[in-house]
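Continuing the series of single-chain predictions for the mutant panel. This is the parent chain; the variants come on the following pages.
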Amino acid sequence: MLKARPGFGINSMRDVVIIGGGPAGLTAALYASRQKLDTVLITIDIGGQLSLTPSIENFPAVPPISGYELANSILEQVNEFGCEVIYDEAEEISEIDGGFKVRIRGGEEYETKTVILAVGKKPRKLNVPGEEEYTGKGVSYCTVCDAPLYRNKKTAVVGVGEALHEAVSILRKYENEVIVISPGRVSGELAEKLRGLGAEIMERARVSEIRGEMVVKSIVVREIDSDSEREIDVDGVFIEMGYIADTKWLKDFVDLNENGEIIVDKLCRTSREGVFAAGDVTDMPYKQAVIAAAQGAIAALSADNYIRKLEGKPEIKSDWQKMLE
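Parent structure:
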């Protein structure tokens, strides 16, 4: 844990408290710290969902790199600018005179002028033996991220709805053999699309175990109607059961949409003044690391301008904005 920078007290009101250590939270911490704001990052881990990805090949100007390495490289930049990092879980935010109070599970409370929510989303898991053990070693929750790593392999896609079509389409681009496993019936139109892509379909079936030796080697599939099981050799398992926004604790604090995502405007402002949000937890429909990072930067700059307004200082504007005035 880093100490507060000289001139800032540990228990004084901070400028920014950022909750979440994925690409959105880390980038927000980087930009806020570079703006000389007294910044605290509260997170239970570094990387969040990004750390589940063994290789990222679509982050601009960065050669193929694991999600863990990318997150930690951003953390190094964050540390250079003196951001305080608290490894704990935020569990309550309340509004106080002059700002907000954030309480963490460890009991400490942090008062702050602004809050940036970057808590991300959690993939909905199968909760079967072998899933945790082989995550990042054949088990993936992001087909668009990891499909290139499985070229010419035998893969399984576990999920429901249109997410199946997207996942199969991506995997087939890399000449993978694909078997689709769905706990319910696959609609006629969707089934036709999947078979047209060359996928095998197992309806009303569930994966009951993921097996391997260092990496995934097979899955055990239980057919719901017959209650029979069989083992199928695969090299990769892509779980597309959707993502869960962990925002129940925020539902009375900021406006959420029907999916539990935080509603933001183009400046990453939430419904509560002084509170911003960034990354996969927002209602931005595209969930990618580079987009989360961009929103983190926007949220931090918006928080900086909000604080400047509180202090009676002029907002920082781009050269383009100044020219248009």
